Amino acid sequence: MIAQLISIGNELTGGQTVDTNSPWLAQQLASLGVRCVRHVSIADELEPIRDAIVEASRAADVVLITGGLGPTPDDLTREALATAMGVPLRLHTPSLIHIEEYFKRRGRTMHPANRQQAMIPEGANAIENPHGTAPGISARLSRAAVFCMPGVPYEMKEMWQRGVRPELETGAGRLVQERILRTFGMSESEVGERIGDLMRRDRNPTVGTSAAELIISIRIVAEADHAEACQGMIDADATEIRKRLGDVVYGEADETLATAVGRLLIERRQTISTAESCTGGLIAKRLTDVSGSSGYMLQGFVTYSNEAKSRLLGVPSELIATQGAVSRETAEAMAEQCRRASGTDYAIAVTGIAGPTGGTPEKPVGLVFVALASAGKTIVKELRLGDNLRREQVRDRTAKAALNLLRLSLIRTC
Amino acid sequence: MIAQLISIGNELTGGQTVDTNSPWLAQQLASLGVRCVRHVSIADELEPIRDAIVEASRAADVVLITGGLGPTPDDLTREALATAMGVPLRLHTPSLIHIEEYFKRRGRTMHPANRQQAMIPEGANAIENPHGTAPGISARLSRAAVFCMPGVPYEMKEMWQRGVRPELETGAGRLVQERILRTFGMSESEVGERIGDLMRRDRNPTVGTSAAELIISIRIVAEADHAEACQGMIDADATEIRKRLGDVVYGEADETLATAVGRLLIERRQTISTAESCTGGLIAKRLTDVSGSSGYMLQGFVTYSNEAKSRLLGVPSELIATQGAVSRETAEAMAEQCRRASGTDYAIAVTGIAGPTGGTPEKPVGLVFVALASAGKTIVKELRLGDNLRREQVRDRTAKAALNLLRLSLIRTC
Questions:
Q1: B-chain residues near A209 (CB < 8 A)
Q2: Which residue of A has its CA nearest to B68?
């Protein structure tokens, strides 16, 4: 089964409100094996709403509509649905009683305008709204089961759980389940190249990639009659993908490079400290985003000024003077001194030019040195991130590169 | 003029990603006097994308399309637009050169798959993408000017500003301009009470509030025939609002508490250092988000373990033992020792329980002590943020409270 979502309101089309109902409903539908292929947001105007309902009802098995059920003149969903169905609106007495009681319970008198909220297209059914005045509406139109719900998220969610989801569970089709693999260190096109055959559109599971700030995510979506079958298909693809991509796959679902690193440090009972210049605390922040990180993240230095690099870490000021604060040698010294001062198994140090100012021809914005000190050896990696990046991107990518450097040496020294 | 937006990607229709591009673009269009009446999000499938483009181009003067310009087989926007226009795709050599140089600058070799990103429908124009590989596309179809932009928000926004907005400014209708004031330290309802009369729907400018993680934003939107008139109306309201709210207004537009603090520190030629426990580097990170922060942010300590508090800052371990690491006394000592060790005018220190674990009846999750040391005095503020917050919220609110404490003492000691 496939679904389309329609969300109604000028605040959505005007951009003042971000439509979070549609993503939430799409995920709810997916968990029922109903695939959502289209969301439409429309302004508060009768004809466009009617047309969208007609169009969606021809193309989908399920149409979920949110918003436009209020008492004001610009709430047009009821009327638009009735017009789309070619039927009049009729007063639904139980709903009217519910609305009157809703106000009575709150010691308020019902405004006449609220009466229109009890109007339902002839032949449609009302859906109870425990949290508000407007009932929802369920109806059949063309090939689709159509459900209208309020736009207020908590009213909508409650109505979905109680009044809509149960209707769909019975009629729902095959189960759809997904898993997401997270990778770092390979371009989206290279990932696509390595697993291109798995990304054929006609396969089940389907495999797709998406990129966000150097994290390439691989989504595996399997469709089957029951959960075990879905999981079996997903496991097979996940195993194959991990085999082809190796350790660029750092985790699944919501895992970050920091949680992956944390898991490895706990497994190995090892500890980490940080010395940061251009990232100014971002790496320590990422490490300590993880609950329980106090078990391995012992301390960090933000040595933003050259003076601090010498005073806090004991990096020789002559070294900084001769090689520069942004140099392989300074990064190396920062990491080694940080590890010594902290008594940790590993120490990460970064120094670079985050920009937008401070770049020179030989040391441009985006030049960063990342150092990782461990027992007996220190690795230094030079990054040239490009001078077209924003400051926050340079810092974000530097933090990711540093955490990934640690992750890889944790994996490889196990 | 009216506009329609099309956003493309399974991650959108599947609900894994919330489409924030469309609301942002709708507001940008509004500022040009172009009214957006419809957003459509579509899965990565050729025919539905093509149909949506055809339909939107018949109904609107402007069609903005985001997403589907990547290098992988499921990036179909180029092909869908070409099909909708009834023309073939042609290689756009300057774009290919841009892509090749993009990889060269990063010392990487271009993957063959990226070549397809340089394909443009015959008769359409490429729009430069300074931040990525995929060029945008501008074309005419039916009554509409059609623009394709990347789905990656920062690439899209940069392309909009440089390559799309200028195209539309010429043709735009009545002018709508806005200004946003940012406040911290007052509830949305209290702000609403103080400026309620300015928030009447029938006014021009309109004034509205929105809340996000304790930052209350006040949006002033004025409509007039020319920019000067808009600005004059906005200035008047902004001045009145600042008069009524006083120093809870910390800035405008994209200003953060960290940029506000930075401005004040530079004006006063003063310096800051940080000692962080529960925020684990977040405050230093926020301070150094600001370009030029090296002028006032000298150094920071992440003393995540008790040992580090004593070793790095010289907080007496007896004090920690008797009062606890999360205590007024420890926060105070951390701040004073940090200021001494750093030789800065101010030092911020925080210690608290970020959760989700680690809370006790007398010291629950969300209990945080924020200390600010300056010449001759140290202020300590106790926060009880509530144990219903997520870890990241506790850390975020702690950082904001700390930066605001510094901001207010900078203002008040001037």
A1: 72, 74
A2: A210
Minimal C-alpha gap between B286 and chain A (Å): 8
Measured between alpha carbons, how far is B22 from B12 in angstroms, rounded to an integer? 11
Predicted confidence at residue A11, as pLDDT, reads 86
Asked if residue A338 lies in contact with residue A349, where contact means CB atoms within 8 angstroms, the answer is yes
Nearest Cβ partner of B74 from A16, A199, A312?
A199
- CA angle at B138 for the pair B134 and B142, rounded to the nearest 5°: 140
Cβ pairs A/B, distance under 8 A: 258
Q: Which residues of A350-373 are buried (b: 16+ CB within 10 A; e: fewer)?
A: bbbbbbeebbeeeebbbbbbbbbb
Interchain CB distance below 8 Å, B105 and A274:
no
CA B354 centroid distance within chain: 23
Token representation of residue A128: 């109870």
- Residues in chain A within 8 Å Cβ distance of B12: 23, 39
- Per-residue pLDDT for B367 more than 80? yes
Q: Which residues, 6+ apart, have CB-to-CB distance to B352 below 8 Å? A: B277, B278, B326, B366, B367, B368, B369, B383, B394, B398
pLDDT of B255 = 94
Which domains can be identified in chain B, with CATH numbers? 2-169 (3.40.980.10), 175-252 (3.30.70.2860), 257-412 (3.90.950.20)
Question: Residues of B with CB below 8 A from A35's CB?
Answer: 14
Q: Do B285 and A282 touch (CB under 8 A)?
A: yes
Detail the DSSP E strand segments found in B2-143: 2-8, 35-42, 62-66, 89-91, 119-121, 125-127, 136-141
Q: What is the largest CA-CA distance in chain A?
A: 86
pLDDT tens readout for residues B182-238: 999 998 888 888 998 998 878 999 888 877 788 988 989 888 888 889 999 999 999
Residue A109: the pLDDT is 80
B135 has a pLDDT exceeding 70: yes
Q: pTM above the 0.80 mark?
A: no
Q: Structure tokens of A249?
A: 């796959």
Residues contacting B218, CB < 8 A, separation 6+: B180, B181, B182, B183, B191, B195, B207, B208, B209, B241
Residue in B128, B288, B301 to test binding to A, most A beta-carbons within 10 Å: B288
Question: Helix or strand or coil: residue B80?
Answer: helix
Q: What is the dihedral of CA A314, A315, A317, A323, to 10 degrees?
A: 180
* Residue of B18, B34, B35, B41 to mutate for A, most A C-beta atoms under 10 A: B41
- In which element (H, E) is residue A409 found? helix A391-412
Distances (CA, A) of A252 to A183, A238, A401: 9, 10, 18
d(CA B352, CA B369): 6
Q: Does residue A225 register a pLDDT over 90?
A: no
The residue to which tokens 């920071």 are assigned: B300
Q: Are A89 and A78 in contact (CB under 8 A)?
A: yes
Q: Do A211 and B152 touch (CB under 8 A)?
A: yes
Per-residue model confidence as pLDDT tens digits over A115-137? 999 999 999 999 999 888 889 99
- Per-residue pLDDT at B171: 57
Q: What order do you get walking across the sheet with A2-8 strand by strand?
A: A125-127, A136-141, A144-149, A62-66, A2-8, A35-42, B35-42, B2-8, B62-66, B144-149, B136-141, B125-127
As a whole number of angstroms, the distance between CA B366 and CA B387 comes to: 5
